[in-house]
Amino acid sequence: MKKISLFFLLIAVFTVSACSSPSTDVTKEYIEKNTKENLSKKEVEKIFGKPKGTITENKYESWLYDSGENVDDGNPSLESVASEDIMDEKIKYQLFVVFEKDKAIQYSYFYKKDDNVWQYRTTGKKGSASDEQASTFDE
After folding, report:
1. Which of 53, 91, 99, 137 is found 20 to 30 A from 85 (Cα to Cα)?
2. Which residue has the higher pLDDT, 113 or 74?
3. Considering only CA atoms, which of 132, 128, 120 is closest in space to residue 95?
4. Where are the beta strands (DSSP E) in 1-139?
5. What's the pLDDT tens digit per position in 53-91?
6. Region 95-106: what's the mean pLDDT?
7. How many CB atoms within 10 Å of residue 96?
8. DSSP class of 40
9. In this model, does residue 18 exceed pLDDT 80?
10. What is the rounded CA–CA span in Å between residue 5 and residue 8?
């Protein structure tokens, strides 16, 4: 009986864990497809999972998502983009979601393309997106 109970407990834990974060890799295309203007915090969390870090400054709250552990000190920074980690492919991306009055007003997705870090930025409103080189690294 104890083995069966433990089995069902483990299934429940894995089910809850699987629901807390997206099952897909976050790509630029995923951002384009899933972001919308004025999504609530709950809606953003449903799409991207729980953020790795948050910061509130004045009337804005920012959430950070990335594809791995930041190497520097283990804590993701909301102060700057981890460009070197993206370039070294220690992480695939960083996504910053900015909220005002509990509504998402901007998504900034940083990723590696053509040996540089690029930023795809959108408000979620159709036609609001820009995709530009964020930094250059000369070796």
Report:
1. 99
2. 113
3. 120
4. 53-57, 60-66, 93-100, 103-113, 116-122, 130-135
5. 999 999 999 999 998 754 444 455 667 899 999 999 999
6. 96
7. 21
8. B
9. no
10. 5
Which residue has tokens 């540089």? 116
Tokens, residue 64? 């950070």
* SS3 category, 103: strand
Whole-model pTM: value is 0.75
Contact 111, 87 (CB under 8 A): no
What pLDDT score does 91 carry? 92
- What Å distances lie between residue 46 and 7, 21, 34, 50, 126, CA to CA? 27, 8, 11, 8, 21
**Cβ pair 102, 40 in contact under 8 A:** yes
Residue 46, token pair as written in the block:
């449903």
pLDDT of residue 102: 94
**Cβ atoms within 10 Å, residue 111:** 22
pLDDT at 32 over 80: yes
Which parts of the chain fold into alpha helices (H)? 2-19, 28-34, 41-48, 83-87
Residues in the chain: 139
Let me know: does 133 contact 72? Beta carbons within 8 Å: no
